[in-house]
Every structure is written in structure tokens, then in C-alpha cells.
Design a protein that fits this description.
Rossmann fold; four-stranded antiparallel sheet; eight-stranded mixed sheet; alpha/beta; 221 residues; 12 strands
Length: 221
């Protein structure tokens, strides 16, 4: 998600990968036809986006939301990943979770992680960046979908200022305007279905047991 988002932080960094733009053409070139593990799968959105690209052989999460195995990613071993060629996931961005995950994942399999683009400039990330061999640009993504509501009452002044074109009914007796359209998780009107973050993202790649290397940077296509 965006580090400067106005949304409240979600528990356990659960931000599902729902934007198709998260899978750029250049990433597909590297992973097409491979088998992989998704150890931070949440509701399986990233797996769904990769259905026509690669085959997921292991899906887990510490708090799985759908059909997946309940498993702590930091406890993965070669036994769980024996049928997987890669690890591909959108992990938690908090460094107290992310850095140990990178250490565990890269001891097991070559690893692709979807992370903020500016992470590479942070001093604490320098040791991991020094052994990162590829970075694929993604750009901005949306992490939230707004809800559609029918005929929800809103304060007259608020809708008069900004949302009059979306008011579908006015109750003169109550002095209330009713709004039909998208609302955010904070209950505010919104003109779009999706909410884009203000940060850019990249896919970072580490070989198994990575060694110091020059990083090659790729565009989205």
C-alpha cells in the first residue's frame, strides 16, 4: 500500500494484490512456465493474477483468508517448497518482518518480491540490495476497491459543494440529499472504484544464496 495513504493501517499488512498492473510484461518474461510458492498469499489475489503465467505449487499465509494453508512464512523449509522453482509474493513491507523473510526465502529458492520502489535507497536495506540481481519497474498500483452504495443519505452541505452531480434524490421534508455512487472505507464519497497509492513499486529478485552483484534494472515492458 502507499506509505502516505490516508487509510488506517491494516492489521498484519494485509494489502491484497488486486491491480493487474502489478504483473508487468518484463516480469512475465522471467517467470513464465515456472512453478512457484506464494507464502504471503492472503486471499490468493496474486495467484489469481498469475494463473495464465506460472503454476503455484504452495500457497500459505499466517492468517489465510481463503482456501490456503495456515503457515508462518519464516518457518518455510525445502520440504514445503520441493515442487517449486521460485518464491513469488507481495510480502509485508515492515522491515521487522520483511528483512527476516528475505533471509529465509533466499536460502530456499530464487525469490521475486513486490516492494516499494524507494526501498532500495534506505540504508537498512543496503545489505539486501547489494545481492539483488534484478529490479523490474511496476509503477503506481491500487490496493483498495471502494464500495458502491444506493441512496445513502449525506449532509446537504457536503454534497452541495462537491457531489451534486451524483445526488439522485432530495427529500425536501427531511432536507436530506441521497447519494448513489462509490464510498471509501472511511464512508466518504469517491468518484472512482479504485484507490491508487502515491508510491511506485518494483519487483526485486534474488538468486538462491545470493552473492554480491551488480543490479540490472528493467522497465515494465
Amino acid at each position: 500500500m502507499s506509505k502516505r495513504s490516508t487509510f488506517d493501517k491494516i492489521s498484519k499488512d494485509f494489502y491484497p494484490t488486486i491491480d493487474p498492473n502489478a504483473i508487468p510484461t518484463k516480469l512475465v518474461e522471467f517467470i513464465r512456465g515456472k512453478t512457484y510458492a506464494e507464502p504471503c498469499c492472503g486471499e490468493g489475489d496474486l495467484v489469481d493474477l498469475l494463473t495464465d503465467v506460472s503454476l503455484c505449487r504452495w500457497e500459505s499465509d499466517i492468517d489465510p483468508k481463503r482456501r490456503h494453508t495456515a503457515w508462518d512464512a519464516l518457518r518455510l523449509t525445502n520440504h514445503q517448497l520441493e515442487k517449486c522453482e521460485l518464491i513469488i509474493t507481495n510480502p509485508p513491507f515492515s522491515k521487522t518482518l520483511l528483512l527476516p523473510m528475505i533471509d529465509v526465502f533466499t536460502k530456499l529458492k530464487p525469490t521475486w518480491l513486490l516492494l516499494p520502489a524507494d526501498l532500495m535507497h534506505n540504508q537498512y536495506f543496503a545489505p539486501h540490495m547489494s545481492v539483488c540481481s534484478k529490479v523490474v519497474s511496476v509503477g503506481r498500483l491500487f490496493w483498495f476497491k471502494n464500495k458502491w452504495v444506493e441512496k445513502r443519505p449525506f449532509e446537504f452541505d457536503e454534497l452541495e459543494r462537491k457531489w451534486d452531480n451524483q445526488v439522485v434524490y432530495y427529500d425536501a421534508v427531511k432536507g436530506t440529499k441521497y447519494y448513489t455512487g462509490y464510498i471509501t472505507s472511511n464512508g466518504k464519497p469517491c468518484k472512482s472504484e479504485t484507490v491508487s497509492g502515491t508510491d511506485n513499486y518494483c519487483w526485486y529478485y534474488w538468486d538462491k544464496d545470493p552473492q554480491p552483484t551488480d543490479t540490472i534494472f528493467y522497465g515494465r515492458s
